[in-house]
Amino acid sequence: MPKFKLFANKKGIADQKKNNQFVKFARQIYVEAKKGGPDPNANLKLKAIIANARAINMPMDNIERAIKKATDAGNADNYEEIRYEGYGPGGVAIIVECLSDNRNRTAADVRAIFNKRGGNLGETGSVSFMFDHKGVIVIDREEFDVDEDTIMMQALEAGAEDIVVEEDSYQVLTHPYELDSVKSGLEAEGYHFANASLQWIPQNTVKITGEDAANVLKMMDAFEENDDVQNVYANFEIDDEEMEMLNK
Question: What domains sit in the chain, N to C, each tagged with a CATH number?
Answer without folding.
Answer: 14-71 (1.10.10.200), 80-129+204-247 (3.30.70.980), 130-202 (3.30.70.980)
